[in-house]
Amino acid sequence: MTELRYIYATRASEGTIRPDPAQEAVMPEFERIRTALSAPPPKRGLFARAPKPEPIKGLYLWGGVGRGKSFLMDLFATHVSVPKRRVHFHAFMQEIHAGMAEARKRGVADAIAPVADEIAAKVRLLAFDEMQITDITDAMIVGRLFERLFAAGVVVVTTSNRHPDDLYKDGLNRQLFLPFIAQIKEKLVVWELVSPTDYRQDRLSGEQVYFHPADDTAHAAVDRLWQEMAGAPSERAMKAQQIDAALVLKVKGREVVLPHFRNGVAWAKFDDLCAKALGPADYLAVADAVRVLILEDIPQLEPAKANEAKRFVTLVDALYEAGVKLIATAAAAPEDLYLSGTGSFEFERTASRLREMQAVDWGQDKARPA
Length: 370
Known about the structure:
By secondary structure, the chain is α/β, with parallel strands linked by helices. The protein has 2 domains: 3-192, 3-Layer(aba) Sandwich (Rossmann fold); 199-366, 3-Layer(aba) Sandwich (Rossmann fold). The protein contains 14 helices and 12 strands. The strands form 3 sheets. Strands 2-3-4-1-5 form a 5-stranded parallel β-sheet. Strands 6-12-11-10-9 form a 5-stranded mixed β-sheet. A hairpin with a 2-residue loop joins strand 9 (260-262) and strand 10. The longest helix has 18 residues, at 21-38. Residues 366-370 have low confidence and may be disordered.
């Protein structure tokens, strides 16, 4: 049995994961890439240069949310010994934009080239979570960026909720994006993870998701849920270790910062999202970017906090309509969060939605298409 399949089988026998035939079926693809990356470079002949190594086909793993794509990616990336980068695709593209801006400041005409070359000099493997293209600027960049990365021998493994043909679907000037889709099909094996089980939904089945008061017990419970769902250290441990895993969403020239983001799960405090001058477009962007939002320290709102209450209402509406799971710590029960002040009557609907969102099966009928 190959190493990754052995590790998977061992975890299944120990009961730490539930064996899934769809996940097991794709393991040989991950092992193929791991083995190829681990192979020693070709030896040079006595009178000739060493032959150039054969390019390694990456993997484009797509399927519905919660099927274990990120788990498989973590398992694979953890057991690859070459220089690598495991990163959310959205965060990666933000870094690309920043690098290109710096290159332009230096007067570089082709700003993509130095950015791609710097990445290729540092890593052999790029492992992306949730490849998706929704921005025309990204759509115009990725083709040339990845062409240069592939030419440099960088191997790409990525997850996505969409088939490559559906990336940037109906986007502006999409015909200019089509060569990138062709690159994906040429350089990566496209594999659909067809599993009937939504593990992310299952992890929250029967779990308490709204905690009040927001005391140490509540924070400890949320830490546990974060570790289970995000597959990352606790939020407090990440801060102590100075691990920066923020997701920055750019909306109409503004930045919306989710301090911690991993595997589709975001963590933020109430003040991060509701004490700042954010509006409906910002909250729609949050709801589109995450599958689960952990929102801590929702206060009991006084009349002087009417603006914060209005923003919270808008945020909850966006999450509700998008079917995003909400895990929260709060000072009080939903009905007691905002008792008086402008909009307090309308807040009753928000309290009702917060109650509804705590149901075990809530959100299953709102699941976003893959």
